[in-house]
Design brief:
Shape: globular
Radius of gyration: 25 Å
Distance between the termini: 55 Å
Length: 454
C-alpha cells in the first residue's frame, strides 16, 4: 500500500499548487478572471492571454485544520519548527479542534491559451484551453488520534481506533472551451460556454471499514475498501501475496495516451434591474467525464490481520502491505460528474461605475462535500486603467477572511492579482499559517480593441 501512496503523491503533487474561481473579482469589469464565474459577463476589451500565465491560481479549503495547528516552534528555543507529532508538544488542543470527519479540498486551474473578442453587435466570443485539477479527502478523527497518541494504554487493554470513511480522490483534465455572451437587449445579457474535456488522471480510494486495535501483547487490523485509478500512461505492477494477485505499485510506462473523454457547459445571465442595481446568476461545470474500461486499475482491500509482535532478522523488513493490500479486482466502466458550481450576485452602484458594492453567494459541489461562501465587496475604479476591490467572505472560513484584488489595464497590458482570503502570517516557506481557507490568482493578458462600457 505504501508504494501506491507514493505513486499517488507523484500524481497529486503537481496539482496541489493550483484555484477554481476568485470571488473578489466578480464585479471587476476589466478582469478576465471574472469570466470563469459567469459566461454572460463581458470584459471591457478583447484579449489574448499570455501563454501559461493568462490565469494561474491555487485554492485550499478545510473544515478543521490550519497550519498553525500542525506546526509549532521548537520547544528547545532554536529557530526551527516541529510538527504536532513531536512528543514534546501537547496534543490535547489539537485533537479538540478536530471534527469527526476532517475535510480537505485543493483545486487548481491554469489557462494555457486564451482569446476573447467582440463582434460588430457587441456580443462577445471566447476560446480557452486550460488544465484543471481537484483533490479532496476526508480523514477521520481516529487517524490523527492514532498518530499523536499511538498505543497509550497502560493496563494491557491498549487503544482501539476507527478509521471508517477514510477517502481521497483526485481528478485532473484538460478543458477546451468556446463561450458566447449575447446582448438580448439593453438590460439583459445571457451566456453559454461549451466544453470538451480530456481526462488526465482520476484516482479514488475509500475504506468502508478500517479498525485498528493496539494492545500491549498484540495488534489487529480489519479493513474493507476499494481503489480505482486511471490516467494517461498509467499502469500497475502486481505481485502475489498469500496466493492472491495484489497491486504493488503504479507505473507510468503505458501507452494509453487517451483514457476517455467528457463534455460540459456553463450558463449564466446578467440583468440590469435599474440604474443602481444589477443581478447575475450562473451554473458552472455541468458535465461528466467518461473513462475507458480497459484503462481502469481496480483493487479491493479485505483484510483481517493480527500479530503478536515483530521479530525481524537481518534480511527481513516489516511491510505495511502485509496489513493492508489491494487485491486485483475486475475493471469497471467508470465515469465521474464534474464538481458543479453555482453563483448568485447583486451589484449596487454607489457612485456610478467609480464606486460600487457587491454581494455574491457561491457554492461548489464536491463528492460528499459542498463548499459555500458569501462575499461582500467594495469596488473602486478611480481612473480608467485601475480597478481595486476589497472583499469580506464568511460561511466556510474561520478567520482572515478579507480579500483584495488589483487589476492594472493600460492599453498595452492587463495584469490581475488577487486573493479571497488574505494571509498575513506565513512560514519561512511562505505558506499561510492561520488560515483554514486560502487562495491566490494571477492573470496576465494583452488587451485587444478599444475600451468599452459593459
Amino acid at each position: 500500500m505504501k508504494k501506491i501512496l507514493i505513486s499517488l503523491a507523484i500524481i497529486l503533487l503537481p496539482f496541489l499548487v493550483f484555484s477554481q474561481n476568485i470571488r473578489t473579482s466578480y464585479f471587476m469589469n476589466s478582469s478576465t478572471a471574472r469570466l470563469d464565474m459567469n459566461p454572460a459577463f463581458q470584459p471591457n476589451r478583447g484579449y489574448i492571454k499570455i501563454l501559461g500565465l493568462g490565469g494561474l491560481g491555487v485554492n485550499f479549503t478545510s473544515n478543521s485544520l490550519s497550519l498553525d495547528k500542525v506546526i509549532y516552534p521548537n520547544p528547545d528555543g532554536s529557530n526551527s519548527s516541529v510538527s504536532i507529532l513531536d512528543t514534546r508538544i501537547d496534543g490535547s488542543d489539537f485533537l479538540n479542534s478536530l471534527k469527526s470527519k476532517n475535510k480537505f479540498n485543493f483545486s487548481f486551474n491554469e489557462d494555457i491559451i486564451g482569446l476573447g473578442w467582440f463582434t460588430n453587435k457587441n456580443n462577445f466570443w471566447s476560446f480557452n484551453l486550460s488544465v484543471k485539477s481537484m483533490f479532496n479527502a476526508t480523514i477521520p478523527y481516529g487517524i490523527f488520534e492514532f498518530l499523536k497518541e499511538g498505543n497509550s494504554g497502560e493496563d494491557g487493554n491498549g487503544k482501539q481506533y476507527n478509521f471508517k470513511n477514510l477517502q481521497a480522490s483526485e481528478i485532473s483534465y484538460a478543458d477546451l472551451s468556446v463561450g458566447y455572451s449575447m446582448n438580448i437587449n439593453k438590460k439583459l445579457k445571457i451566456g453559454l460556454k461549451l466544453k470538451y474535456l480530456i481526462p488526465i488522471a482520476d484516482v479514488d480510494m475509500k475504506f468502508d471499514k478500517l479498525d485498528l486495535e493496539l494492545n500491549n501483547d498484540y495488534w489487529r487490523a480489519q479493513g474493507e475498501g476499494n481503489f480505482h485509478a486511471i490516467g494517461m500512461k498509467m499502469g500497475a505492477d502486481y505481485k502475489l501475496r498469500d496466493g492472491k494477485e495484489t497491486i504493488d505499485e503504479l507505473n507510468f510506462d503505458g501507452d494509453n495516451v487517451s483514457v476517455g473523454f467528457g463534455f460540459g457547459f456553463d450558463m449564466g445571465a446578467e440583468y440590469k434591474i435599474n440604474d443602481k442595481f444589477e443581478a447575475s446568476i450562473s451554473i458552472l461545470d455541468l458535465g461528466r467525464l467518461f473513462y475507458k474500461k480497459e484503462n481502469d486499475i481496480a483493487g479491493r482491500a479485505n483484510t483481517d490481520y493480527s500479530f503478536e509482535g515483530i521479530n525481524l532478522s537481518d534480511d527481513e523488513t516489516f511491510d505495511v502491505d502485509d496489513v493492508i493490500s489491494y487485491e486485483k479486482s475486475e475493471s469497471e466502466k467508470r465515469g465521474r460528474a464534474l464538481p458543479s458550481a453555482f453563483n448568485l450576485g447583486l451589484k449596487y452602484k454607489i457612485y456610478g461605475d467609480k464606486f460600487t458594492a457587491g454581494l455574491v453567494y457561491s457554492s461548489r459541489y464536491y463528492p460528499k462535500n459542498t463548499i459555500q461562501e458569501i462575499t461582500l465587496s467594495a469596488n473602486y475604479h478611480p481612473i480608467s486603467w485601475l480597478y481595486t476591490t476589497l472583499s469580506y467572505s464568511f460561511l466556510e472560513s474561520d478567520s482572515s477572511t478579507f480579500g483584495l484584488a488589483l487589476n492594472i489595464n493600460p492599453s498595452w497590458i492587463n495584469v490581475f492579482i488577487g486573493s479571497d482570503f488574505m494571509f498575513f502570517k506565513v512560514t519561512p516557506q511562505y505558506a499561510p499559517v492561520k488560515n483554514n481557507v486560502a487562495n491566490i490568482f494571477i492573470g496576465i493578458s494583452i488587451p485587444l480593441g478599444k475600451n468599452r462600457k459593459v
